[in-house]
């Protein structure tokens, strides 16, 4: 059986479903945003110098990369048949060496050396220096067309339709590994569209005010805040790539799995933030934009570091929910009640404690004593329980004070006394959530759980009926 010509394989977008430079830069900036200064200074020296500088400053783990499993199986089979296979990449040489050592079947690995960027014609020269003029090439980009033109055969990878069109007449395409681009459902999962339900809090103040104009503006605010929240989810997932890939469930997230590229995720997040802020400045009061910017900044700080600080993280989560209520309050002419804001802070601090308790309970049950999660250990479970129950019940007391002081005197409700019926409904709901949490039957996010739980939805209908009765 004749052995096929030596095969040169590209790394970024071909062997892996990502780009090592993009991931490395994000990892570098996550360690210290000030690293951007020396990185910018190296730009005049060229791409190879930038890649070398980044590679020297990061801890690179090739085991955490999202490999193209179909191509990987193909390469291993070809190597078993005696075919010579080499890794030729524009990534830094240290990256190429790490990947080659991890996979164990490459006969040679060549990357950029800090001076020459191994791409295009430079890559052709490196391949021919190792394999001679007869070689096959596996790539994914139109940038690789000069290499394909010199190759005896080609392996086409990825969703680059233009590349397939340009090579479709070639009789020397030995294999294809088409990868679909990210679909709308994939983007929907990355943007966490189901979490937009949390932004319904922007309607609280306008609904309680009984005014119609703020309700229309609230629809705009709901969308704008949803866009900002989705953008921050993308940035959070970009910052957590390594951790997500090591997680049994989060590894399937679109960015961690490579279904959406790091570049596309970053561009989408930036575009969404700019579009949302422009829409806010154009359509909403300036006070609302100030709240939205505060929400954005605090969310980014939370993703960067605060989420790993025990007790601070749940306080910040409660504050982020309260900012949603505050944003809606900027649309109402009357000042927003401090009682309402205090209720929101206590109520959502309690829900955040449930989230952390349920998460920690699951980890302890799986790993055993000594397990930890997000800065919490098993010893913190009583603290979370006490915090959650106390703030949850306190929020109900504060809500009743708000109703008596703020809503009963207003003419917006014909029978304001009926609003008292909301209190036992909330009490039952909070106690039930903690009962489920203590018994390990609570999902990690109680808000999302409530949107799926029939009993919780039924209680929501009861509250809506009570408010309708109070207004009639």
Strand sequence of the main sheet, in spatial order? 3-2-1-4-5-6
CATH architecture designation of the largest domain = Orthogonal Bundle
**Tally of separate helices:** 21
Would you give the CATH topology of the largest domain? Farnesyl Diphosphate Synthase
Q: How far from one another are the termini?
A: 86 Å
Uncertain stretches of 5 or more adjacent residues: none
The average pLDDT is 88
Q: Mind telling me the CATH class of the largest domain? A: Mainly Alpha
What is the number of strand segments? 8
Task: Give your account of this protein's structure.
- The protein is 60% helix and 7% strand.
- The chain has 472 residues and is α/β, with parallel strands linked by helices.
- The strands form 2 sheets. It has a 6-stranded parallel beta sheet with strand order 3-2-1-4-5-6, with helices on both faces. The protein has a two-stranded antiparallel ribbon with strand order 7-8.
- Helix 17 packs antiparallel against helix 18 and helix 17 packs parallel to helix 19.
- It is elongated.
């Amino acid at each position: 059986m004749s052995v096929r010509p030596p095969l040169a394989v590209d790394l970024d977008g071909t062997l892996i479903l990502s780009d090592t430079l993009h991931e490395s830069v994000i990892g570098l900036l996550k360690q210290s945003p000030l690293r951007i200064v020396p990185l910018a200074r190296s730009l005049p020296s060229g791409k190879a110098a930038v890649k070398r500088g980044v590679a020297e400053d990061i801890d690179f783990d090739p085991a955490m990369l999202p490999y193209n499993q179909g191509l990987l199986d193909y390469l291993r089979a070809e190597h078993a048949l005696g075919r010579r296979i080499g890794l030729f990449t524009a990534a830094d040489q240290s990256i190429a060496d790490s990947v080659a050592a991890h996979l164990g079947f490459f006969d040679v690995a060549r990357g950029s050396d800090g001076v020459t960027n191994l791409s295009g014609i430079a890559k052709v020269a490196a391949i021919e220096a190792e394999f001679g003029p007869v070689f096959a090439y596996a790539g994914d980009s139109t940038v690789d067309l000069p290499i394909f033109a010199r190759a005896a055969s080609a392996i086409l990878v990825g969703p680059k339709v233009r590349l397939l069109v340009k090579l479709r007449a070639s009789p020397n395409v030995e294999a294809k590994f088409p990868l679909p681009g990210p679909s709308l459902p994939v983007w929907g999962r990355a943007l966490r569209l189901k979490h937009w339900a949390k932004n319904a809090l922007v309607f609280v103040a306008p609904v309680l005010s009984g005014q119609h104009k703020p309700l229309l503006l609230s629809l705009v605010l709901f969308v704008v805040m949803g866009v900002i929240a989705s953008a921050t989810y993308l940035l959070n997932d970009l910052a957590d790539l390594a951790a997500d890939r090591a997680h049994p469930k989060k590894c399937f997230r679109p960015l961690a799995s490579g279904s959406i590229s790091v570049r596309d995720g970053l561009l989408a997040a930036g575009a969404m933030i700019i579009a949302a802020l422009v829409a806010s400045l154009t359509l909403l009061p300036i006070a609302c934009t100030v709240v939205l910017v505060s929400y954005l900044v605090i969310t980014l700080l939370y993703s960067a570091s605060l989420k790993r600080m025990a007790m601070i993280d749940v306080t910040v989560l409660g504050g982020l929910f309260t900012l949603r209520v505050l944003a809606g309050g900027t649309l109402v002419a009357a000042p927003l009640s401090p009682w309402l804001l205090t209720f929101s802070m206590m109520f959502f601090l309690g829900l955040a404690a449930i989230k952390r308790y349920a998460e920690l309970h699951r980890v302890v049950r799986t790993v055993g004593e000594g397990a930890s999660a997000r800065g919490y250990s098993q010893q913190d479970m009583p603290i979370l329980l006490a915090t959650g129950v106390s703030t949850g019940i306190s929020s109900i007391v504060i809500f009743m004070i708000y109703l008596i002081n703020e809503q009963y005197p207003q003419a917006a409700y014909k029978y304001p006394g009926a609003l008292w019926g909301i209190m036992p409904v909330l009490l039952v709901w909070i106690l039930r959530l903690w009962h489920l949490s203590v018994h390990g039957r609570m999902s990690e996010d109680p808000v999302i759980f409530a949107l799926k739980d029939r009993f919780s939805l039924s209680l929501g209908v009861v509250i809506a009926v009570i408010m309708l009765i109070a207004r009639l």
